Each structure stands twice: as C-alpha cells, then as structure tokens.
Amino acid sequence: MGVPDSQQPDTFLQRVAYLIARHQQDQLTAGEAEELRAWLDAAPENRRFLEQWSDTRLLADKLQRFTQPDVNTAWEAFRAKHLTNAHPTEVPRKTFRLSRWHWSAAAAVVLLAGTAWYIQHSRPAAPIAQQQEQIPVRPGTSKAVLTLADGSTIQLDSAGNQVIAQGASNILQQQGQLRYDLQNPDAAPALNTLTTPRGGQFRVILPDGTAVWLNAASSITYPTAFREGARQVSITGEAYLEVTSKANHPFRVTINDQTTVDVLGTSFCISAYANENTINATLVSGAVKVNTGNTSRVLAPGQQAQISNGSITVSQTDTAAAIAWKNGEFYFNNADIPAIMRQLERWYDVHAVYEGNIPSRTFQGEIQRNLPLEDVLEGLQSTGIRFHMKGRNIIVQP
C-alpha cells in the first residue's frame, strides 16, 4: 500500500516530503525519481537531509513524534513567515523550478514532519492477529499481604471489608486500611507483618494508635499489642509514620536490621530500599534520634539523616519531597534518570532497560502518581531522554 493519489500534496515542501516517503518505501515512479533527483542535485543540504532517513532509529522517532496536525501547523507557520509571495503554491510535478532554496529550522521541521506523516499514513494495516498493542500500564493501588503469627497470609486490597480474628485481637480491614481492636489485654502479643508488593501501598493503624503508610515494595513487622517499655517495630522499604505520643513508652523503629530510630511523638518518613545508596530518615515534626553502629544524631523538624556505611549525615531538606508519595505525587528534585526509574519500577511494577549511553540529565518537578505510566514518561521527555514501553519494560534510550 503506497501513498494514494488523493494524498499527493500541492505545496513545495509537502511535495518533497511526499517524494522522500515514496523513496523510503521503494515506490517512486520514473517521473517521481527524476523529480527527487533534481531536488537532491540542487543543494548539498538536500542530500544530507535524505541520508538521515537511512537511520532507522531516527526514522522511528520521527514517526512517533509527528502527526498530521503537527504537519499542518508547522507548514502554515513556515509558509506565512517564509513563502508568502515567494514561491508558487503549485509546483510542476516533473521537475522543480527552484534550483536552490533557503534551508531554515522551520523548513526542516516541515520536511521531517511531512515525511514522517506520509510514511505513517501509507503503511499497510497489519492483520488483527499479528497486531501487538501495548497495554497501558496502570498506576499502583491499595494492596498488601498480611502475615499472621501462625504464618498464614491474607490478601488485602482497597475494596475488601472484613474482620480477622487473631487471638487477643480483632483486625478490621476497611477502605484500604487495617486497624487493631484489642479484645484481651492480658493475652501475650503476637507478631504480624504487613507487606506491600511492587505496585501497592497500604495504611495500618497500630494497636497504640500510631498511623503507618507503607509505600510500594515495603514491609512493617509489629506486635498485636504494646506492653511495658519501648514500642518496637521493624521496617523495610519506605514508610511514613505519625506516632502517638506516650511519654513512658518510646517508639523504636528498626530499619533493615542495622539502624534504629527512637521516637517520642512525631511524624517522620523512613526510606530504606535495598537498591538505594543510603537510608534516609526525614523528620516532619517532633524529634527523633537516629542510631547506627556507635553513632547517634538527633534530628529537628525539616532535617534529614542519610545513613551509609555506619555514618550519619544530617542536612536541611524539603519535607514535602520526602512524603510526596504519601500524598499521591512523585516529587523529583534534580533527580537523575536511574533514580526516577527506580521509583517508577516500584510503583508501576515494571523494569527499566537501558540501551546505549544515557546522558547525565536531571529532572525537577511533580507528577501525579495516579497517571498511567505512559503519561509520566511523556512528561519526562523534557530531559532529552527517550522512553518507550515494551510489555512491562521501560526502554530508556539517549
């Protein structure tokens, strides 16, 4: 299937685009070949333009970027600025009367867009059985797995409403949240673990009233009742906590079995993913003490502790960035592409594949976490890096 006669253009640059598209598909008639050859011989810039279409990756990029409205808009802008009363609106189809013409950025845009559009609209339709449409990748949802003291597991999601009986406690699941109702204060507490998969998040109200938001690929282990002494929980991945103040019962978080955070009453965020270089503890309000090895540091609100190789570095930070995920946003502050991809991998349950040498670029901005992945990647195109989906893989290209 070639470019039909009804799509043959009447304007100069559109005619060139049409001929290049026919050439790329080996569909030129003898007359059209002569016509294109005359244009190529008219200026070295013309031949260089044609040669770039032999780069198949560049061609694919053009086909993806340009649609007919782009062609029309670019053409009208170029014609109004450069061609009014300068060139005829119709060009004889056997040969170009203009031996040379002025190359400009606008002219190049029109030719790129026009050629891409003609090729795109002259492709034969594939049989339905052979078409492989990319299924949109949806954002994560409220889902988790609750592991009870006896090792049994319960799948949780945002739609479920149930009461789970466990020894001295009833566990209430409602609207994407767990809450513990202690039935027998004298019974020995048991340990539960709440785990979110990639593409999931969940909220739990602990027996003392502390609220915990778990980000994707994270977990928290906690007792079904807090007794005398410190209230102790263990966390992996990322979590935001609003701790209920109990002066005689400090709250202690163990992170990845190597770092602890001691709390009285406060709001803070822990980020401790295994594939990140540091463990980050960010204090929103109150006070916490961060301990690792023989080192301890007390944080004030607005400070972040970065823990790495047994040392703690404290700095001022934007707390909104640290807890943006809890509020339904990605918040990137001069984040490089690998750091951004790691967040997308966890939330959309996908895998980033890097092709070629990816330039060192950073991105700053906020993106809603409820968007389809394709929309997020479109927003990241401003970095100059190209992204496309293949199944559940993000292909990252320079």
What would you note in describing this structure?
The chain has 398 residues and is α+β, with helices and mostly antiparallel strands. The protein folds into 3 domains: 5-126, no CATH class; 141-322, Jelly Rolls; 328-397, Phage tail protein beta-alpha-beta fold, CATH 3.55.50.30. The protein has helices at 12-24, 30-42, 44-51, 56-65, 68-83, 105-120, 319-322, 337-348, 373-380, and strands at residues 141-147, 153-157, 162-166, 169-173, 177-182, 191-196, 200-205, 211-214, 218-223, 231-242, 251-255, 259-263, 267-272, 279-285, 288-292, 295-299, 303-308, 311-316, 329-336, 351-354, 362-368, 386-390, 393-397. The protein has a 6-stranded mixed β-barrel with strand order 1-6-9-10-8-7. Strand 4 and strand 5 form a beta hairpin. Helix 1 crosses helix 2, helix 1 (12-24) packs across helix 6 (105-120) and helix 5 runs antiparallel to helix 6. It is elongated and about 95 Å long. It starts with 11 loop residues before the first helix and ends with a strand. The model is unreliable at 1-10, 59-72, 77-106 and 125-131 (pLDDT under 50).
Biggest sheet statistics: 6 strands, mixed, barrel
Please give the share of residues in helix: 25-40%
CATH architecture of the largest domain: Sandwich
Shape: elongated
- The figure for the number of domains is 3
Offer a concise description of the structure:
With 398 residues, this protein is of the alpha+beta class. It contains 9 helices and 23 strands.
Q: What descriptive keywords fit this protein?
A:
398 residues; alpha+beta; Jelly Rolls; Phage tail protein beta-alpha-beta fold; 3 domains; 6-stranded mixed barrel; 3-stranded mixed sheet; 23 strands; 34% strand; disordered N terminus
